[in-house]
Amino acid sequence: MGWDLPERAKYTILHPVDEAALTTLLQRVADGDRTIQQALSDLRGLPFEDIGSAKIDHHRELRTGQAEAVYGPGKTPDEVREAATALVRRASGAVFVTRATPEQFAAVQPSVPAATYDERSRLIVAKEATRNGRRLGAAAVVSAGTSDRPVAEEAALTLGALGADVDRIADVGVAGVHRLLEHRDRIERADVVVVVAGMEGALPSVVAGLTSRPVVAVPTSVGYGASFEGLAALLTMLASCAPGISVVNIDNGFGAALVADRILRARER
CA–CA separation, 190 vs 213, rounded Å? Predict the structure, then answer.
């Protein structure tokens, strides 16, 4: 860390923050040995909690504003439970398990009774953000077709748990563009817009041409052969002529929600 500490403090500061480590650090700030900015830098550099099956990065929330998420595929139900429980115990904000199975949720729920599971999006919300009555802002989640709804719902549920007011606008793909135009006022009332589409992926370009709001585009793997499991939609969104669009990976509703969350949090500063 670049500063001298008693042996016990050195040990605790190399593990997730506890009272002894924080007391030592705060005392050094009070004594003038560390500035507030230096102390924040020290905290950002603190490492992780080793729970055996995983190394939990508890300080990601301090560095980025959002706690580490648990990615479900490839993990046993017990491994998901251990990771989710460790995060819920220390995180001040929302905690998620993405692409989770019902079996993984069944393992998590006894340890985290407040956890919820949505089968369509396969998202476990283990903990919601607490904002003391203040909302983060307004987000519209616009999806092209019913087949895109699992990815759209992942984005919507994530944003809701992070503290945003979410307006779901579904089944408004460009094959019937009049359906989208009917909702222009709702889209414009949002502070950020997440647009989810498969097939040829044209919907984000249309939405970005209708609104002044930032657009986060999510290609989905929905479509017939030449859609190449979402690659066609991804390339369309990346090649869009409409400015103001950011694009995340195929089927990544969670990632889109985190982009939107950062946009909303930046407005609060």
Answer: 7
Positions of CATH 3.40.50.1970 in the chain: 138-267
CB atoms within 10 A of CB 210: 17
In three-state form (DSSP H/G/I as H, E/B as E, the rest C), the secondary structure along the chain is CCCCCCHHHHHHHCCCCCHHHHHHHHHHHHCCCCCHHHHHHHHHCCCCEECCCCEECCCHHHHHCCCCCEECCCCCHHHHHHHHHHHHHHCCCCEEEECCCHHHHHHHCCCCCCCEEECCCCEEEEECCCCCCCCCCEEEEEECCHHHHHHHHHHHHHHHHHCCEEEEECCCCHHHHHHHHCCHHHHHHCCEEEEEECCCCCHHHHHHCCCCCCEEEEECCCCCHHHHHHHHHHHHHHCCCCCCEEECCCCCHHHHHHHHHHHHHHHCC
Interatomic CA distance for residues 152 and 8, integer angstroms: 48
Q: Measured between alpha carbons, how far is 144 from 200 in angstroms, rounded to an integer?
A: 11
What contacts 29, CB < 8 A, 6 or more positions away? 35, 36, 39
For the chain, 269 residues long, give each residue's pLDDT as a single digit of tens.
333 333 333 333 334 454 556 677 788 888 888 888 887 776 665 666 666 667 676 666 667 777 788 999 999 999 999 999 988 887 778 999 999 999 999 999 999 999 999 999 999 999 998 776 677 899 999 999 999 999 999 999 999 999 999 999 999 999 899 999 999 999 999 999 999 999 999 999 999 999 999 999 999 999 999 999 999 999 999 999 998 899 999 999 999 999 999 999 888 76
- Is the CATH number of domain 138-267 3.40.50.2300? no
